[in-house]
Amino acid sequence: MRKKWEMAGLADDYIFNKVMLDYDICLEVLRRILPDLHIKKIKLPNNQQEFAVAPDAKAVRFDIYTTDEQGNHYDIEMQVADHHNIAKRIRYYQTASSMEAYDKGQPYEQADDSYVIFFCNFDPFQLGQQRYVLHKHIDEIPEQIIEDGQTDILFNVPSLRHDVDPKMQAFLDMIAQREVEATDPLVVKLKERIAVVKRNRKWRSEYMRRSVYEMDQEMREKKIREGERKIRDGKRELLEDKREIQKSKREIKEGQDRLKEKEQLIQEREQKLHENQQTIIKTSIVAMRELNIDETTIKKEIKEKFDLSDKEIKDYFAE
Q1: Is residue 288 a contact partner of residue 298, using CB atoms and an 8 Å limit?
Q2: What is the pLDDT of residue 319?
Q3: What's the whole-number mean pLDDT along residues 144-170?
Q4: DSSP β-ladder status, 64-67 and 46-47
């Protein structure tokens, strides 16, 4: 844990939050992100401010939250891991931030603008861009932006495209722990602030406790995911077993149906043979009678030739 603390930089969300609490650093970072706004001053940055859009709704905790002299709202987030929910996540953060932009009784057109800014240690949309700026637009006219006061900005920190201006690139390089120009005033302040954060025993202890908690939480989540995986595997195996059983039942039924068909065919053939034998016996009896052969001889001949019982002989001669 101690080594992790010593090696941690701006890409660590805890360090990022503590560094960005510095008024001058936060103001300069916002100026570099949004140079066209010409931000003159901001309120003292708030760390881990929590909002809930409704009493029973999921609460959102902002990493760094502040407003400027124009009333614009800024939420700055450091995203360390990709949980593949960035679009829905930024939507909820924007909703919570936008709620603060509407004062009770104020006309809608006077609502303050809201900016949600994510620094991601991964490509948030896997499109290869270094910076993504999101606005609403009309589907039929994609170039027509809807000016609703909401702006989402996401930075792909690992990107080496250098599509942003040099000052912004310097800040991204600091987060990524790449080589950076030491004469940049913001870089100097960032290094000094990181050193201050690292010397703070209270923050170090808090970092250690949080890291242990996160490790425990990660282990619990891992066990939960493993349990869910086993349940899914078990359900899949059970479904496969059911399918095999159904297949076996179907094959057994098909076999039984084929057996019944064969039995019926055998019965029909036996019946046909029996009928043919009856015809032959009756024809033989008639033929021998026409030859004036006596009944005793005929019975003896028929019995031996067709292997009949006395009762069967009797039945034939009774007709």
Answers
A1: yes
A2: 67
A3: 94
A4: antiparallel
